[in-house]
Amino acid sequence: MTDKALVVFDGVVKRFGSLVAVEKTDFEIRKGEFLAIMGSSGCGKTTTLRMLAGLEAPSEGEIRLAGKRINDLPTWRRDTPMVWQSLALFPFLTVRENVEFSLRMRGVDKAGRRKRVDKWLERMQITEFADRNVAHLSGGQRQRVALARSLVTEPEILLLDEPLSALDAHLKVRMQTVLSNLQRELGITFVYVTHSQSEAFSMADRVVIMSRGRIEQIGNPQEIYRAPRTRFVAEFLGSSNIFAGSVSGVNGRTVKIATPAGEFIVAPDMVKPLAKGERATFVVSGDRVHLGCEPPADGYNGIEASVVGEEFVGATAVIHLEGTGRIEIKAQKSHDELEHLNLSPGAKIWVSWRPEAAHILPCE
Ligand code: ATP
Predict the structure, then answer these.
(1) What residues does the ABC transporter domain cover (predicted)?
(2) Does any ligand 1 atom lie closer than 6 A to the CB of residue 296?
(3) Whose alpha carbon is nearest atom 9 of ligand 1?
(4) Which of 81, 118, 294, 360 is geometrically suited to a Cys-Cys bond with 150, CB 3.0 to 4.6 A?
């Protein structure tokens, strides 16, 4: 355990009957960080959060909060409030009554409650709705009430389970900023479960990627994006081109890898040296490939491909291509970079990249 760890999952397993929802898990949540837990549906992210909140008991292992084992500590004694996707506000109570609820439960006197509730209504910019029934608020306003209700006890950690998924796209982006700023200003540890890469990557200091009950990778967004550890992570990020093959030559710092799409030069960014004949999978992210009409210069990698389609993604476009060996290729480029290219379906184009742009998956 490091000095910075607020929460430690130590060999934690969660089974529901014969189903293993979370496989043996070891990880730490650092004090004051914004940690996102991300993965597709059913991968065990909510179960992980619920174990931390005390809503599920681990089948094995130990969870420690600030150095103390909390496996057997009931939810109400943990001070790990949670904001839900459904928000779970009390529908017949006013905004003020919702926010002061947990202070009442803790026996805080009337004057103390008023002071704290006023502070959080103000902080979340919902003072003007204090006496309104929560049923009569917009989605964004209800979101702020749910946050105020969880933060009014000033906990050290806040758990959030897909809190923005019910909001429309515009409001979602606004609430992402509200949440990031809030977390930074308060210095509270946020643990945020989401299936959305854009939410996780835009807000979190570190991201945990889970698949089928297992942690595939933990790291900061840049690290994960640039250096995915497994094929699952690379595929999940969706922006990487994946080439699997075997090492056909080793030359100082670079290796050649033969794949069904051709032979490519890779300057491995990993510590372990690769030997001839060894299997290797590398990825090249879509923003690191270059598109052009000519084959690449010596020392670069290139593959001739035909255009399958173009997808408009705001400031950039994703060009879908098919290369030799029927390999799927994606290139993510700004509109300026694409101006002089023929991108009609079926058009031939050269895709190229530098040996340093490839990253070998260390866990394949
Ligand atoms: P989603 O994004 O769909 O919420 P998730 O990643 O949060 O998915 P979990 O809710 O943690 O996934 O579920 C992990 C696995 O455990 C799933 O297969 C789920 O069906 C199962 N599971 C979760 N809760 C229970 C329960 N109370 N009883 C039985 N199985 C459960």
Answers:
(1) 7-237
(2) no
(3) 44
(4) 81
